[in-house]
Amino acid sequence: xxxxxxxxxxxxxxxxxxxxxxxxxxxxxxxxxxxxxxxxxxxxxxxxxxxxxxxxxxxxxxxxxxxxxxxxxxxxxxxxxxxxxxxxxxxxxxxxxxxxxxxxxxxxxxxxxxxxxxxxxxxxxxxxxxxxxxxxxxxxxxxxxxxxxxxxxxxxxxxxxxxxxxxxxxxxxxxxxxxxxxxxxxxxxxxxxxxxxxxxxxxxxxxxxxxxxxxxxxxxxxxxxxxxxxxxxxxxxxxxxxxxxxxxxxxxxxxxxxxxxxxxxxxxx
Length: 269
Known about the structure:
The chain is of the alpha/beta class. The protein folds into two domains: 1-102, no CATH class; 103-269, Fumarate reductase/succinate dehydrogenase flavoprotein-like, C-terminal domain (Methane Monooxygenase Hydroxylase, Chain G, domain 1). 39% of the residues lie in helices and 15% in strands. It is built from seven helices and ten strands. A hairpin with a 4-residue loop joins strand 9 and strand 10 (244-249). Helix 4 packs antiparallel against helix 5 (149-166) and helix 4 (128-142) packs parallel to helix 6 (180-204).
């Protein structure tokens, strides 16, 4: 630890405290799924309509078992339980004939190839490092541990500006094999997508819930931990197309009648 502190922070912990700062550890949301690992979307009045042939499990998925505040070690259980369930569902769907392999359309890879082509052809663009640093600073200031209405509103605008800058990033190394610069540029695009979803969703949610804590939604008897269940007990759905939001109800009913529903409770630790 001492060696890391000296190397990366320029601080010798024998002589001075190691500087620390809160940062993102886990993303509560993700690709919406059911307990079978099937990806679900709102369709024809059903908020959880399965998408044929599309599955997700682990930390990329949101099966909604953690509520708004995941407990420690539950992520591993999530991966084991829903990874197994998703695998079994894939087998069942194939064996039942629900899934049939179809030829890929001719343009299936066009979007991915266009991302690579832009980086190959971009000149006089912005530094991936500089844009990434601005993204991190924006999220740290405007969507941190404690959130404020004015900063969230400003953050929506700022992260939009960062997203526009990311469209003009360039890399000096154009090689095709083991190109770390290319990987970092592609990862930056993905991170900004998540940052936009986080910022826009947080600004819109006028309450505190789980890890989302607003200073204008204090803990009261009527709204424990700042929750507003009457208006905000619902999932946020963010769409990159149009940077828009939608919502769907939270399912609090267990799969079995033998299990009592887990009531919403105040966090007291």
